[in-house]
Amino acid sequence: xxxxxxxxxxxxxxxxxxxxxxxxxxxxxxxxxxxxxxxxxxxxxxxxxxxxxxxxxxxxxxxxxxxxxxxxxxxxxxxxxxxxxxxxxxxxxxxxxxxxxxxxxxxxxxxxxxxxxxxxxxxxxxxxxxxxxxxxxxxxxxxxxxxxxxxxxxxxxxxxxxxxxxxxxxxxxxxxxxxxxxxxxxxxxxxxxxxxxxxxxxxxxxxxxxxxxxxxxxxxxxxxxxxxxxxxxxxxxxxxxxxxxxxxxxxxxxxxxxxxxxxxxxxxxxxxxxxxxxxxxxxxxxxxxxxxxxxxxxxxxxxxxxxxxxxxxxxxxxxxxxxxxxxxxxxxxxxxxxxxxxxxxxxxxxxxxxxxxxxxxxxxxxxxxxxxxxxxxxxxxxxxxxxxxxxxxxxxxxxxxxxxxxxxxxxxxxxxxxxxxxxxxxxxxxxxxxxxxxxxxxxxxxxxxxxxxxxxxxxxxxxxxxxxxxxxxxxxxxxxxxxxxxxxxxxxxxxxxxxxxxxxxxxxxxxxxxxxxxxxxxxxxxxxxxxxxxxxxxxxxxxxxxxxxxxxxxxxxxxxxxxxxxxxxxxxxxxxxxxxxxxxxxxxxxxxxxxxxxxxxxxxxxxxxxxxxxxxxxxxxxxxxxxxxxxxxxxxxxxxxxxxxxxxxxxxxxxxxxxxxxxxxxxxxxxxxxxxxxxxxxxxxxxxxxxxxxxxxxxxxxxxxxxxxxxxxxxxxxxxxxxxxxxxxxxxxxxxxxxxxxxxxxxxxxxxxxxxxxxxxxxxxx
Length: 766
Fold this sequence. Notes:
Blueprint: H1 2-11, H2 13-31, H3 49-61, E1 66-73, H4 81-95, E2 100-106, E3 114-119, E4 122-127, H5 137-150, E5 163-170, H6 183-198, E6 203-209, H7 210-221, H8 223-243, H9 246-269, H10 281-305, H11 310-337, H12 345-373, H13 382-389, H14 391-400, H15 406-427, H16 447-458, E7 464-472, H17 480-494, E8 499-503, H18 505-515, H19 530-537, E9 553-560, H20 565-582, E10 587-593, H21 595-629, H22 632-655, H23 666-691, H24 696-723, H25 731-762
Antiparallel strand pairs: 1-5, 1-6, 2-5, 3-4, 7-9, 7-10, 8-9
């Protein structure tokens, strides 16, 4: 097969080159059509039970895609004409934003926010802000009283009367246009048409919600271009120091850029967009391309130094590297494709994007690059220049070749086992989900997290809500047993650590029942009589989100202090315990809606799939190694160091308090996918020398002088490039930078130290 491919590529290399140039032009044109494709539904694990509940009741009770805008008075309270004028305009502006479900817009200015008070003979009520409102002293005093009567204090009005809230729900399909909602456009409008327009001296605007978060992520993601440029320059310099030739430096980087162009162009051709959370994938494709490109350049340069003609050198390099290269890239691709096991669309899109990038790298760096190298002409003094500048490498290889000796090999393996044991126990502390307050994708000091902190401080409902849906029989709200069970559930959940407050229909009904009895606190109970219970729930409208039109569904809203993984796990466990003990034919407690409901489902999916995903990755990589080398010993030598690095990566995440979630879970696949390249190239070369009759020590020394050069330079180059991400505005990119830097270096050490130590015992001295 290798001989056939060699003849096909080099027998008509000009024709192949023309075809590849044409494909590059086509994909380059397609790249100009690339679009940023952000969507809330892409974050949903649609096959999870919580999300089934979420989608089933989303139309009636809203989803988790909330928009919260707080208007805050910097000095004094909200009861000034200027503040109310601003709040009124902000409410109108929110009403006309694209994608807003207008029936869900709420502020003290909207007619769906009312007050009820007890008067002689029963109740009276009205809008918190009357239709004829004029912001004078008398009217403002009346509005203050209406706010206290309405129960909106802490929800739509700050606890200390220094801020007021406008809330709304966004939908995926814009009702005005019928097209998919452009979240980045909404984020821009929130800034330009609300914050910039209405924020002034004395009045601050604070905005949070998925749309706003995606806007900040997209703005921060533009820094990826800058970091890509920095990484490119670092790679350029380090590869030049390795090759000592401008031509041999430029070509592998050029082909890796072509791989990125093909990747993004192919993505557009297949109808996909690029999510802001996946903007790191092009760099990873570039990194993988550089890794394989440097191997090819190193092999060609070695042949040329020995006096081989450029075309023959390229053929020999192609012949030596095409099999291990394809095996390594297929391993990378399969590693990414295992992410498809996770039924979260954003991870599946990342898997498709990355696997496509790896597949095109087979063509750009294993076919296009050797063809281009076959035309390279190096200067007559190139060999002497390389030899004179490479003496320091000999000292490095002298120290490394000893790792195949029994004593040093045994020491290396003992150290590897010990740190693996430590890593295993440390990784057991790994949290599933978020471990910090605020939005973990952004820096703690970001504007979004600052806005989030202000709203959390000023309002008592919290930003993190998980709603338990109680499904009952029709007219279940006038059945005392059902209402009493919901009331008991609310009391139990309200006392779970991490729960800030709760709201349910029985809670409101008890207050109304007290009102029908002259406001006596002793009567703040649920009436046992169906007629009295009906009287207590009738004033509660469906727009409150506390009951359905036929009273067969009654949500219980649970507001949390934060969305840390431990808080979510504690609350969902409490709900499940209550449901298991109390579910009946009359009522069922179902998790969950609200933004924390989505997080809870995501956390459970990540926890359930992380181990199977790793098992599939390692099984696939092991199978490919068996097919490639036809040796279980070779497979163990290559795969075992990867396992050590995976364990240590989880331990590092635990130490740095980086939660395992949708943005960090792919790192496991990346670590195995990229790390296996080093092992395959090292063992592939070493096996060839062993077959020629060399001893293990001699074979490893020769391997270091050829493949070891490329592995060392590639790992250090890529680690230096991704380490710049640590200074990104995006927290998840900084976390990825730390983890990938560690994995590039650790996988290199595994291939150069642990692999030969294993070979010393498994292959013997032959």
